[in-house]
Amino acid sequence: MKRILFTLILVGGAAFGSFAADLPATKPTLATLAWLTGSWTCEKNGRVVTEHWLAPAGGTMLQVGRTVAKGKTVEYEFVVLHEEGNGDILYTAKPSGQPEATFKLVRGTATEAAFENLEHDFPQRVLYTLKPDGTLLAAIEGTKNGQMRRVEFPYRRAAP
Asked: Of 37, 95, 124, 133, which has the most beta carbons under 10 Å away?
């Protein structure tokens, strides 16, 4: 009896393992990140940072950002989120005065997006979190000069 039970467990486990292996792993899509859509603004250290995100369409989301200090644009950035053929989502940032950098989505939910490129100088991670109060916390983090560094941007919805 023990031998039959053991065999059933082995066969059942193998069948379940095979079934589980056949299930598709669900990857987040750009639609998962649609909550980024719209205009966001952050006032920090005498600077006003604004990001405008277009809704997902055609396999991309586009963002344009600008930092204004003392009435002048001091930085700007263009970001393209795009889906690769394998389902990966890439975040390609084109900041003013710097070479473009691409980060891969490593976590994407209805309220969180984490992009990572461990080979990049700084940042190695770009993070967005939609807070329960409707604000958006963006952050860049990673190692710079041997020290862990994190810079946060607490955004609120901007008027259209």
From this structure: 124
- Of all residues in the chain, what percent carry a pLDDT higher than 90? 81
Burial of 37 (0-12, 13-18, 19+ CB in 10 A): middle
Contact, 89 vs 102, CB < 8 A? Answer: no
Residue 125 lies in a domain: yes
Residue-number span of the structural domain to which 118 is assigned: 28-157
Q: Smallest Cα–Cα separation from 138: which of 155, 115, 121?
A: 155
Q: What pTM did the predictor assign?
A: 0.82
Query: Count of residues for the chain?
Result: 160
Comparing CA positions, the residue from 86, 92, 146 lying closest to residue 115 is 92
Residue 5: inside a domain: no
69: CATH = 2.40.128.20
pLDDT digits (tens, 9 = 90+) for 71-123: 999 999 999 999 999 999 999 999 999 999 999 999 999 999 999 999 999 99
